[in-house]
Write a structure and sequence with these properties.
The protein has about 325 residues and is mainly beta. It has a single domain, classed as Jelly Rolls (Sandwich). The chain is about 5% helix and about 50% strand. The protein contains one helix and 24 strands. The strands form four sheets. Strands 2, 14, 15, 16, 17, 18, 19, 20, 21 and 22 form a ten-stranded antiparallel sheet that branches. Strands 3-4-5-12-7-10-13 form a seven-stranded antiparallel sheet, with no helix packed on it. Strands 6-11-8-9 form a four-stranded antiparallel sheet, with no helix packed on it. Strand 15 and strand 16 form a beta hairpin. The longest helix has 12 residues. The two termini are about 25 Å apart. One of its GO terms (molecular function) is metal ion binding. This is Pirin. It holds the Pfam family Pirin_C.
């Protein structure tokens, strides 16, 4: 899934980590993908209050709802896309020749590098429930060769009533096989009703929790508590060594974290770059059919590039 807004605004982002632990609940905004009859998602990153969590720079949460996903071929640069489903099936195709059906509990990780294009679609109307995330690539690796990974089996840990699946990075000794380019972590925590789990965290990381289902109470190291329901993103700051999660009823949350990303980035449409000139060049390459390759097998035309904003894209500081 990607940014299909017809009038996307540029987002200039840098690491905005809080040095100590915080409880900062970020409410997302509704975005309809693919026009007025498209699928609705809740976008919590980038957010007006906070642009990034580690290298995580984009979060779309959707469902559960009966819908058809149909995202035509579109471009990406300078990032990785992470597709994670709780319900439904989505078919991925890309310009490096990948064709992969993703199912719940399986990880699709696409590294755009210098340039890639891809499509995503559900094969029929069905209940869809999932999340799409982007990870900004650091300057030294953002021009790597584009590639795609599918991981049907991922490491898990937990205790009775609680299960943790490690999507990316490492958590409590369990390491994902997926390739990353900055120190980070991504994990789904699933809890039965009244179940509880205490998770170790890296104090040097900033962390956040995204509610996926149910009602989850979160407590930290003697600094209060917060309740999380589906949709919002709870930013936890840095400096935490543990959090405890307890489910009032069966539920799931997504843990995201990483070392604060110190580089400044510009996000516009589906591109992550460093300068306005780069963004304009990426758009021109997509509009003219160069650099991004061809997605074979999708029945439809590629997504046209939106018009660049009249006001020149330029840095706007840490908080927009």
């Amino acid at each position: 899934m990607s940014n299909l807004e017809r009038d996307p605004q540029e987002t200039v982002s840098v690491g905005t980590a809080t040095e100590g632990p915080v409880w900062e609940l970020l409410t997302g905004r509704d975005v309809v993908l693919g026009g007025p009859r498209g699928m609705k998602v809740t976008r919590t990153l980038p957010n007006r209050q906070r642009r990034m969590v580690g290298a995580w720079c984009f979060i779309d949460y959707y469902g559960p709802e009966t819908a058809v996903m149909r995202l035509p071929p579109h471009p990406h640069t300078g990032l990785q896309t992470v597709s994670w489903l709780m319900q439904g099936e989505v078919l991925h195709r890309d310009s490096v020749g990948s064709e992969q059906l993703i199912k719940p509990g399986q990880l699709n990780l696409m590294t755009a590098g210098r340039a890639i294009s891809h499509s995503e679609e559900s094969l029929s109307e069905a209940v869809l429930h999932g999340v799409q995330l982007w990870i900004a690539l650091p300057d030294g690796q953002r021009a790597v060769e584009p590639h795609f990974e599918h991981h049907a089996a991922l490491p898990t840990l937990g205790n009775p009533g609680a299960s943790v699946t490690v999507l990316l990075g490492e958590l409590d000794g369990a390491s994902s096989p997926a390739q990353t380019y900055t120190p980070l972590v991504g994990a789904e925590i699933s809890l039965d009703g009244d179940a509880e789990i205490r998770l170790p965290l890296r104090p040097g990381f900033e962390h956040a929790l995204l509610g996926l289902s149910g009602t989850i109470d979160i407590t930290g190291d003697d600094d209060g508590a917060q309740t999380l329901e589906p949709g919002p993103l709870l930013y936890l700051g840095c400096g935490r060594s543990h959090i405890t999660l307890r489910a009032r009823r069966p539920g799931r949350v997504l843990l995201l974290g990483g070392e604060p990303f110190e580089e400044q980035i510009i996000m516009w449409w589906n591109f992550v770059g460093r300068t306005p000139q780069e963004i304009a060049a990426y758009r021109e390459e997509w509009a003219t059919g160069t650099a991004f390759g061809t997605v074979e097998g999708f029945d439809g035309a590629p997504l046209p590039a939106p018009t660049l904003p009249v006001t020149p894209i330029k840095p706007r500081g840490r908080h927009g």
